[in-house]
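The records we work with from here on pair a chain with its fold. Here is one such record, which you should read through line by line:
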Amino acid sequence: MSPATATAVDVPAEGVGARTVAPSPLDPGATRDPHPIHRRLREEFPLTYDPLLRAWVLSRYADVASALTDNRFTHGHRPGDPPCSRSHVDVDMGELRRITERTAYVLARRIAARPQADLVADFCHWLPAGTVAAAVGVPYRDMMRLVRGRAAGALAGECGGQIAVREKALASFLGNVLSDPDQVAALRDAPTGLVARAWAESLRRDPPVQIMVRRTRAEVRVSGGIIPAGASVALLVGSAGRDPERFRNPDRFDPLRDDIDQLTYGSGFCPAVLLAGLEAEYALRALFEAMPRLTLAPGFRPTPTGLITRAPRTLIVRPGG
């Protein structure tokens, strides 16, 4: 199968000789709303070659999930996958929990008295970096200068670069919770287990990384055909998480669903994965304790944007309700 046969498929539509061309995940409008494109790819073009990405594209959950673990695909760095898990030793989980909790509460108290705040700029941007900075002993005044390089690496090795991803994931998580008064009520004093489910559900519905790239070591049969050996493959994680063949009501944020699954992180031990979950938990606890009446500002709705990574750029809230 060649790229040419994957990008344009002859179909009997609107007259003899008409062709249907697969949409691209990079098409205009995808930054604002990629989901119609993802839906069409899943339904009509489960395997297609995209000349803009210079890669084959997989959009269905079964194919994307398989590619992330199948040894016929090279594996990029996904925190929690086996190679990552084996590289981390001597991580004190109790200390990480204490540091994350303290950092979240400090940040929450700093914005509690304001009439209005942007949780992305004033909270999500600082919590992942501040947690790593505190864990490796970087002074607060030097936090943003050092934490994204040498200091982050001291804690998490290759996962140090995940700070920006955790920022976006946290912004989407808080946006999902605060957009629904029922979720606010359910999660305000929720046990850790329920918060963890809500976190995983947010990663499924709104993953911070929308596209992961891998390369095939051999031919691989997937939905729609065969990917040749040595080919670059774009895995649409954002599409896979909303595949109705895998998830009921996939566009709905529902921490109580019984089919929660996420593809952003692997299941193994990794400080970046652990910190992300702790940051989500203590973000909720600190924000609701410091601001019991916290709500989105009147008329504001979170609007995710981005192609490769995606999250709301702002979360405008009223700390006092």
The longest helix spans residues 271-290. The chain has a mean pLDDT of 87. The first strand starts at residue 8 and ends at 10. The two ends are 58 Å apart (CA to CA).
